[in-house]
Design goal:
Order of helices and strands: HEEHHHHHHH
CATH superfamily of the largest domain: Cation efflux protein transmembrane domain
Structural class: mainly alpha
Number of helices: 8
Oligomer: single chain
Largest sheet: 2 strands, antiparallel
CATH topology of the largest domain: Alpha-lytic protease prodomain-like
CATH class of the largest domain: Mainly Alpha
Shape: elongated
């Protein structure tokens, strides 16, 4: 009687084994259509979450690598007392802050926040170029051979390896998920790797009796970083107008 009464009200009954359940709706019923719509909507959400997670993973892994490099450099600094190395350490810790806006952008899953993070990174690369250039010019005007040469070379090697690994992690992930901001931050890490390489070259030059090479290498690296700044700017701006 209950089933007949329900059908009279326009409901549909479905039997699954010994259990009968009702679907209070009119018209054609399709499990497949509902399941397809359900899966499609979740697919979009999953893509967004997957992109966010991959972006955050790249940011945190590269940050971890750079943090380990900075800790190792700190140990070398304590052992050597090099003022030049202290300056490089301060610079590296400052650069690590570029991970903050990128991480926030990926957590928010916001394209606008990601673009702003990209511009922040480009600005950080430009500031790095300015600092490197000023230090090189100052070294030309006031020649001074760096002390603790081999400690500097060791710290430079640590910095180079850390930044190069971070650059690879960021740029590869950035290309996979189409994130200009992450690619720009990868370029930023690569610029810092070149600076660390210059530290090694300077240490070697000073060791063989050519301290002027320290300043000249610094100027050359400044030009390299400025070029990276321009490339990163084009990457971020080009995507914005895409």
């Amino acid at each position: 009687m209950h089933d007949v009464a329900y059908e009279a009200l326009g409901g549909d009954l479905h039997r699954h084994g010994a259990i009968t359940h009702s679907h209070p709706h009119q018209g054609e019923h399709s499990h497949d259509r509902q399941h397809h719509d359900h899966g499609h909507s979740h697919g979009l959400v999953d893509d967004s979450i997957k992109r966010s997670r991959e972006g955050l993973r790249a940011v945190f892994v590269s940050f971890g690598v750079l943090a380990l490099a900075a800790i190792a450099q700190t140990i070398v600094f304590i052992a050597s007392g090099s003022v030049a190395l202290l300056a490089d350490l301060i610079h590296n810790f400052g650069d690590a802050l570029t991970a903050v806006p990128l991480a926030i952008a990926f957590i928010l899953r916001s394209e606008r926040a990601e673009r702003l993070a990209g511009l922040f990174v480009v600005a950080a690369i430009f500031i790095s170029a300015c600092v490197a250039g000023l230090e090189a010019v100052d070294r030309l005007i006031h020649p001074a051979a760096p002390s603790h040469v081999w400690a500097l070379a060791a710290a430079g090697l640590i910095g180079y390896l850390g930044n190069e690994i971070a650059a690879l992690v960021r740029t590869r992930a950035g290309r996979r998920i189409d994130s200009p901001a992450l690619i720009a931050d990868g370029n930023h890490a690569r610029a810092d790797a070149y600076v660390s390489l210059a530290v090694i070259a300077s240490a070697v030059a000073v060791a063989i009796g050519a301290p002027i090479a320290d300043a000249l290498i610094g100027l050359a690296i400044t030009l390299v970083i400025l070029r990276i700044t321009w490339q990163s700017w084009r990457t971020v701006r080009g995507h914005e107008h895409h």
